[in-house]
């Protein structure tokens, strides 16, 4: 960043650095990704254009969206998803993608964290005029993260939260008859995931973690339009645009393993900023041998709740069974339980169902959607 008065070695005032793109305005930002010194307006333009390029390219050059798609933005109230909601609304208009956008928030039930960040999402709902749906763990699983942490402790709670959130997003989206979920995962998140998968030797995940788009439940897709956006640039964008976002870390200590990968990545970035993109490119060029692909378990429907799973019952049902049985950390080890029979009296996750599209239904008529607000775009 600059904007400061620069002095030469001889102590003379140096002229301000001009923007390296428009060459007229004064450079105010040094892009963390490229080192380019640019003015504020050019920074907005390159940031938005790079996201647009990710969107129109996709993994196969065909683009990630189809015209007329109903797209849910996974909205946590944090910087990434807030900037995503802002930029996607803007690009949808600027380039006429023809998307029907929604905000979808999962309330994990973390007092003093998610309740506050959801207030931010509600503010975004008004600011961007997008319909909002909130689905809670309590509603879906009968457990809040506060209660889960009471039972399993802080050490492994991220496993529960991650598995439950993934499924909750799909289920919330299914209730809205969504075609496509987008999340604010950024380049740093993806590079961390590549590193974690290498360190764990998780070949299957390594093979797919750099894709912009992956298939979610049945025909629903999941995309990461910020795949190439650096976290530092997202923060700068939010700051200069004065966007409203919630910036506190989760109170139940972030995933320690990811934390190590993050620290390592930040060290690499400090030495060589391109390290983040380089690691993503390494992941992209990694190819699984056909023999390995063939050896992978095919996906099936969970025998209890119908959600997709590579085992007889899905991970969420297995974790829920452990919780209901009053297990603590050993609940995690039960995750491969192969029995489809639910022990007596235990809670079950509702059957997974997708709405059949009723094209005559407007956003305001779908159950569970926050009521229309001033300026809200109704489909
Ligand atoms: N509770 C939630 N409800 C809806 N979407 C969520 C929720 N939590 C996370 N997501 C989605 O997953 C993405 C990555 O989540 P992660 O937990 O890594 O948070 P993050 O990197 O801090 O992102 P953000 O700044 O948007 O909170 C978010 O950008 C958002 O799109």
From TrEMBL:
One of its GO terms (molecular function) is tRNA binding. SUPFAM superfamilies: Adenine nucleotide alpha hydrolases-like. InterPro entries: CTU1-like_ATP-bd, CTU1_C, Ncs6/Tuc1/Ctu1, Rossmann-like_a/b/a_fold, TilS/TtcA_N, tRNA_thiolation_TtcA_Ctu1. Its main location: cytoplasm. Residues 71-249 form the tRNA(Ile)-lysidine/2-thiocytidine synthase N-terminal domain. One of its GO terms (biological process) is protein urmylation. Residues 300-326 form the Cytoplasmic tRNA 2-thiolation protein 1 C-terminal domain. It is an enzyme of class 2 (transferase). Its EC number is 2.7.7.-. It is found in: Cytoplasm. ATP binds at residues 74-76, 80, 106, 184, 189. Pathway: tRNA modification; 5-methoxycarbonylmethyl-2-thiouridine-tRNA biosynthesis. CDD domains: CTU1-like. Keywords: ATP-binding, Cytoplasm, Nucleotide-binding, RNA-binding, Transferase, tRNA processing, tRNA-binding. One of its GO terms (cellular component) is cytosolic tRNA wobble base thiouridylase complex. It comes from the Eukaryota. Plays a central role in 2-thiolation of mcm(5)S(2)U at tRNA wobble positions of tRNA(Lys), tRNA(Glu) and tRNA(Gln). Directly binds tRNAs and probably acts by catalyzing adenylation of tRNAs, an intermediate required for 2-thiolation. It is unclear whether it acts as a sulfurtransferase that transfers sulfur from thiocarboxylated URM1 onto the uridine of tRNAs at wobble position. Prior mcm(5) tRNA modification by the elongator complex is required for 2-thiolation. May also be involved in protein urmylation. Belongs to the TtcA family. CTU1/NCS6/ATPBD3 subfamily. This is Cytoplasmic tRNA 2-thiolation protein 1. It comes from Kockovaella imperatae. The gene is NCS6.
